[in-house]
Amino acid sequence: MTKSDQPHTQQTIFDTERPETRDSGPVTCLGMTFESDDARRAHFLEKLRERLRDPEFREIEGFPIGSDEDILALSDPPYYTACPNPFLEDFIRHYGKPYDSGTDNYRREPFASDTGAGKTHPIYTAHSYHSKIPHLATMPCILHYTEPGDIVLDGFSGSGMTGVAAQLCGQPEAEFKATLEAEWKKAGFTPPKWGARRAILVDLSPVANFIAYNLNLDVSAREFKKAADSFFKKIEAELGWMYETRHTDGKRKGRINYVVWCEVFTCPNCAGDIVFMDQAYDPKTGKFAKEFECPGCRAALTTRSCEHKFTSYFDKAIGETVRKVTYVPIEIEYTLPGDKTKYRKKPDAHDLELINRLGNEQPRDWYPTAKLPIGKMRDSNHLAERGITHYHQFYLPRALHALSTMWRIAGEWQNTRIRGFLKFMVEQCVWGMTVQNGYESLAFSRANRILKGVYYVRPAIAETSPWYILDGKYKRLQKMLVAHQLPLSRQVAISTASSLQSPVPDKSVDYIYTDPPFGDAVKYGDLNLLIEAWHNLFSRLENEVLWDELKKKTLSVYSDLMRRAFVEYYRVLKPGRWMTVVFHNSKNLVWTAIQEAIGDAGFVVADVRTLDREQGSFNQVTAAGAVKQDLVISAYKPNGGLEDRFKLEAGTEKGAWDFVRTHLKQLPVFVSKDGQAEVIAGRQNYLLFDRMVAFHVQRGVTIPLSAAEFYAGIIQRFSERDGMYFLPEQVAEYDKKRMTVREVLQLQLFVTDESSAIQWLKQQLVKKPQTFQELHPQFLKEIGGWQKYEKPLELFELLEQNFLRYDGKGDVPNQIHSYLSTNFKELRNLPKADENLRAKGKDRWYVPDPNKAGDLEKLRERSLLKEFEEYRAPSQKRLKVFRLEAVRAGFKKAWQERDYATIISVARKIPENVLQEDPKLLMWYDQAITRTGETGNGGNGEWGNE
């Protein structure tokens, strides 16, 4: 029954409605009607409780570590469960559209448009997470690939932004809607079909899913305000006295905003105490000096050269005597009632007495005391060295008192949804009130000054009050609820489980948008542990998909886990449908592993674009090798017709060309940007050949065509335009749109090995000297055709051995000066030593002039010859993956030294097809054979045995 068919007083949970009326009357959920939303919760909680009693249910991969009561307390079924969601099948059965190959007429090209959206939207800023994609960047993809009501899956959903995007397709903001429609019309895209999509969100972490729950299920702004007002009154009554301090007049009392604590070091020379801020902090500039003096012996010191001073104490929570790094309170910032002025003072006797009192008292409310997995989590050695081995030791005594009290008060609310949202708000204090909250220069707020992506305690920290963090957080949540309204449809199902195993039926999902953990970039599981400790519910980190040597998970283990994840995606996705994968990692090895995992699962990659999140993470902003743009991979599951035909035609030329025709249908016909047409890489002959080969290899089928035969055949069968190939029915569309642009961008160099990569980089840098961050996303897109035998090389290595980087010192090089003065009006006619020119040119790589290029070539040759020595060693039997440029350099040197035996022996370690297809290597090999009088191919039988 649809909403329009129902009586006026009844709401449908999976239809749009005003949140204020959610609990005021009957609701329907999964086809069942309940007298109220409370009754719905009670019914499904009991169903979940029954499942939790089943031992087999707890054996599901990724089942969290925790008690039944903790799981039930966090869950709001069937929308969200803090364990594997047993209602996913019901969700799909009720709302999904069964796949029928006989009637299915789905057809989409890849979404061939680079996307970007900032991180300032109120929904995005509602809660922090280690990495997330703005929902406004995801919505265009969902709108392109799906219809209203379709099911969208994200198996690595994190904070649930895919669900937000799916639901907001039914409630787009007016400005976003108008802008997107105008852009799509200009680009010639089919207009978007607005309407909510239904999302299935799966993540291993209970914390991530708790965030997803709070972002994806509606909350009454009025009810939340009422609850929050009551919450703040209660914490004022119970905690206010802890944050009182006397004004400097000795009469009035103020409210502490934060207390600055500073580490005490020991001088390595005189063993005297050094209060870090007293020696290194300049209150006028608000900055810390890198070098400071010991007040006792005047020795020049740094934090690295000093020794930590430790204090021993009895930890009542764990019943052990422990030691910790010594910190002392230095300064207090506070405000007076009715006065917005921020006052600062040194802690007085009253302040110190209060600190000592709280340090000697145990909090009366529960708090986590479990032990950290020292030695098995990121940065755990750093924490242990500072005396942090258990979760409660992240907090100074007052902070632990306050946070435990707030956690208890938030958990007392009877209404499940409001209780969850209050804890969602309080969660902001879990990190922000730890000793990781660093004290920085006066220009910064003191709230949540945490180094993102790591556990790290700085020499100066800020102990903030709850109000200092929560006042701003509460206002942002109110703004989000009132002005922007959360998705109201509740068309979402959230499951806490592994992405490698799910109850989702075969061929039941309409689209997949996913941002998996890529390699070792972010240790999500480790970083979630602190908040999980407060929920008393932990992820199964042994099931986490990542590359982490501490957990005995090598790159090969990670690759296998990713392969399993994509196999699961392939199973549940309907044939002919699409998967969008957002990739973020600066390592080529991880990029290669992802591509192989996608292909091995059966998907075919059709397009790679970029996603610019606009505001970088801490690592993106500060690390020299960080990547500031993500790659967006569009891959499809071949439809059932092709797979069925291929079973009959596998290994034949007919089957190969059938695949090419089907693949060409999946590629964009025309892509334009700024009045220019882009070359669609996937339509070039060498990539079409690679895709055909991969399709056969991944299915264990003999490849029926050589490269030469393929290139000859493609010319006969398909129409060529601008170096790209089209089906007959596609050519007319391309020709028509081609006339609307000024030009086609220059065909790009094919990057297949080190040599072509260097040429490609030279091509890029001659036109525009660029930074590593600018080059890297482009580079990753180009290396999709990298030869399997060629050793993968990191971009940094290629740049350092072949190009020069301007460090911002001295005159700006001619190459950079020419580019900047031509392309930036404000930099024209400036001398090469101008500071503005230096700043703009800093860290840009450029092609060296001939004099310096010779020196670089010598350095590079030494590196290549060193690697060649490993290849020629007797212990090296076969060279399956190697650096072709190193072999070329070694052969050249051996030829000059008339060391023909080395050329022959190394050549026979190389796959024969590689030797035969490289004219330089073949020349040296043939000449060496002639000089020694040996026979040629397989003369010693080695190749014949491969």
From TrEMBL:
Q: Which residues form the DNA methylase N-4/N-6 domain?
A: 128-169
> Coiled-coil intervals in this record?
none
Could you tell me which residues belong to the region Disordered? Answer: 1-26
List the Gene3D superfamilies: Vaccinia Virus protein VP39
Q: Which Pfam families match?
A: N6_N4_Mtase
Classification of source organism:
Bacteria, Pseudomonadati, Thermodesulfobacteriota, Syntrophobacteria, Syntrophobacterales
The Gene Ontology terms for molecular function here are: DNA binding; N-methyltransferase activity
SUPFAM superfamilies (UniProt xref): S-adenosyl-L-methionine-dependent methyltransferases (SSF53335)
* This protein's UniProt keywords: Methyltransferase, Transferase
The annotated regions of Polar residues compositional bias extend over 1-14
Q: Which organism encodes this protein?
A: Desulfoglaeba alkanexedens ALDC
PROSITE patterns under this entry? N6_MTASE
So what family is this one in? Belongs to the N(4)/N(6)-methyltransferase family.
Is Transferase included in the keywords of this UniProt record? Answer: yes
> What protein name applies here?
DNA methylase
The answer to whether UniProt assigns keyword Secreted to this entry is no
Q: Which terms under GO biological process does the entry name? A: methylation
